[in-house]
């Protein structure tokens, strides 16, 4: 099938499919006319890529993990590189979450202090002596 058909069957724009190809995630053949030609398996591969991207994996991580990926869900076969990569990605996400939680608390603190200052009555002007 040509790239337009793969796009229609997967709901993914052709420029995104070309990006997946440039990242080494899709490997179409080439027809005699030079057009990309995809097998029916490409539909499943695109579904796998989309699900793994939803999990927060980068395209480099997905390329590394592709030998461990089967099924459309996708199903992940237990292989050493899979577990190491998923654990590393999870650690990175946990660190990002911790940073966001700290930033959120600091912003809350700034808001609280500022709102309290706004609710204080204005100080009385000092009396003038002549």
From TrEMBL:
It comes from the Bacteria. Pfam families: MerR_1. SMART domains: HTH_MERR (SM00422). PROSITE patterns: HTH_MERR_1, HTH_MERR_2. Residues 1-68 form the HTH merR-type domain. The keyword DNA-binding applies. The keyword Oxidoreductase does not apply. Keywords: DNA-binding. This is MerR family transcriptional regulator.
């Amino acid at each position: 099938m040509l790239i337009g058909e793969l796009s229609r069957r997967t709901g993914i724009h052709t420029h995104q499919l070309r990006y997946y190809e440039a990242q080494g995630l899709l490997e179409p053949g080439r027809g005699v006319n030079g057009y990309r030609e995809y097998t029916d398996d490409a539909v499943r591969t695109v579904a796998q890529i989309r699900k793994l991207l939803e999990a927060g994996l980068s395209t480099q991580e997905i390329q590394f993990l592709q030998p461990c990926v089967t099924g459309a869900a996708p199903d992940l076969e237990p292989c050493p590189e899979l577990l190491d990569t998923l654990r590393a990605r999870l650690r990175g996400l946990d660190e990002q979450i911790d940073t966001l939680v700290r930033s959120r608390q600091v912003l809350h603190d700034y808001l609280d202090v500022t709102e309290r200052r706004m609710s204080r009555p204005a100080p009385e002007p000092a009396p003038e002596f002549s």
